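G., the chain you wanted modeled:
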Amino acid sequence: MAAPGAIFIDVSHPPPKQKYDVSLSFSQSIVSHLRAALKRRGFHAFRDDDNLDRGENIAPKLLEAIESSTVSVVVYSKSYATSIWCLDELEKIMECSKNSQHSFLPIFYEIEPSDLRKQRGSVTEAFAKHEEEGPQMGREIVRQESVDYPEKRSRLWNCKDALEVLKNCKGTEAVEGLFLFSPKKKDIQVNAKAFQKMKRLRVLHLDHVLLSAGYEHLSRDLVWLCWHHFSLSVLPSQLYLENLVALDLSYSNIKQVWRVPKVLSKLKFLVLSNCHNLITTPNFSGLSNLEVLLLSNCIRLQEVDKSIGHLQKLLVLDLRNCESLRKLPSEIANLKSLEQLIISQYQDQYQTLTKKSIGSLGSSLNYVQGLRCLKILHVEDCSLIQLPEEIGNMISLTRLSIFGSKFGCLPKSICNLTKLEILMIASPRLSNLPSEVGRLNQLKTLYIGGNNFSSLPESIGDLTHLRHFHLAHCERLQSLPKLSGSRSPKSAVIVYNCPSLESISLESIMNYELLSCYRCPKLVEKYSTHKIGTSFLNYKGAISFRICHSGGMFPYWLQYETTNSYYALKVPPLGVGNKHFIRWIFYVVHTIKDLNHLSWYMDYKFHNKTKDVYIDCRYLVARAKIGILVGDQTIFDYCSFHVKELDLEEGDEIEISWNYGNVVLKKWGIHVSYYTLDDYH
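Predicted structure as tokens:
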């Protein structure tokens, strides 16, 4: 059996000689190791970052290299699909693989094949981004339907073309979709008769468009109407809505949606967000198939019509920032299909919770406690004095967020929510968590902010799936219990502005990749950089671990310190065997350069210059929502891996280099050592 990670390519029956034996499609440094292994075995491998001459048109050369290769090796990683180049390469590789003389070999690095089949996580986002490129091509294809006569195209994406057609009343039955936006955010005047001949118009998206009288001229086939900054106070009765599936009137001037109840049996999405003059919702009794109702930022909304209880298929109800709304109708208890309920005024969760409460919306929770399909409940600044004990009956909840309320304790029944994955609680009067909180065995994120307790229950250590543990503004908190969260990428314990905190378990913290503690002076004083680093000097474990804190102190035992952005060293004799690991300990002192940016980052690269193999490591220094970090900040970073990861041998030259954005690198130091693990296989 081949050793893990070994690549063998059958050349017992070689195809006709090509320019390259292998072309590599990738977005990870693992390819450096693969390329080195292929090179040692006599294969000529193409890699796009070093085989292209500077100044060449890259895309054609990439495609040519694939065509000129015998085998294409595609290394799928979490970041593979984020690269448009990689996706374009993949398309070309699949095309070439139809040729029996061109082989295709997939390798899955830190992802599962099912991630591609099911398109999960970052893969989903990246492929979606690539379809965005596709729709752009689609628009050009549509334009080519009739370059000189836009009125003959099926869709008018271009605002200039759409305006020309409307201004000159050139509309035809060919037009099925029209998009018109005002680039200068100034209203565009259009005669409604311009739509008279567009009988097949199904999708209409307008923004800052004023229509003259004659709304009956709009197509009766409309299924999707989005009209942002609609100027009238009510929808005209002449506008035919019966075929609509989606109606979006965001940022509009409407005070009421329609004067008399409408029967719109096909409508599934109703978006009225940011309608600042809307006072009451429409009557919902005729919207039997409505699934999504968005009313966020309707700051003058005072009443939700009790007919909302007829929406038996409603899945999402968003009442974010409806600051004039004082209560919800009791009929909301009839929304048996509801999965997401958001009642809040926006406020950054990492800021001190001092915003004035908006009224008695908190009492409306009594109406929703029986909604057993509810998966997401977000309540913020709603004068919530007490969580009802019946909240434990909402067994489908996966996310519960409560901010700015006034209750002093959580009901014990909250521990019955065993499907809960995210729990975020910020109440300045909250003095403790239920002792059995460890029963929430699916919990992945726990955020506790602005609360009044001095300790946390030991059962938090039973949360074995906990990946993100955030504590902020807990001024009386003195200690953290042991944590047993499983090590996973980007797992973190983040502690911010907890001035009394002085005790943590470093052993349990090592179940995470990151411990970030800012404005926690007692904690930093007790666990100094010297003490932390010393405990890792002889640590044996192929892991990465990082601690961030305020201050700029270095331990005395670092082998090398510099203000440069790179450092080079040679590999000493390692001895025989395959059990050697390299251990890196970094200390980095930096300051934030530009406080106006939302984030600041640093990354470093390990580069075996002798073999041209490298490993990249990027991590975020800070985000704006965590708080402005003034003055020197220190990062302690422990990183260890097997020497084969860099294909290291005696005498090889290694370079460590730094790259950073919106950060001033003041100084950094490093301690490098080697060790063996006898039980390594």
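Residues 1-17, 50-58, 347-359 have pLDDT under 50 and may be disordered.

Shout if anything looks off.
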